[in-house]
Amino acid sequence: MDKVTKEAVWNKLKEVIDFEIGLDVVSLGLIYDVQVDEKNNVYVLMTMTTPMCPLAGMIMQDAETKLREIEGVNEVKVELTFDPPWTPDRIDPEVRGQLGI
């Protein structure tokens, strides 16, 4: 069994779009932690731009679905946190420039 890499997980997460903003969750800085254990179980700790995000469930489900597409992945757990709270400072600097922030 091939080892699932963190890089593969991060790349797959770039396919998960926050539909309200139209950008991926990685560029927005919504991913706080990625872990892959020796059994290819994947754990992702993420946040939303606001605790009131109406699409949080859909975005988390999309992340889980996309991560399960990685060959060799065993279990996937996507956990939501608001600690620390998200701020626009977490947005990728290149994307911030495109957004005029």
Automatic annotation (TrEMBL):
Residues 6-78 form the MIP18 family-like domain. It holds the Pfam family FeS_assembly_P. This is Metal-sulfur cluster biosynthetic enzyme.
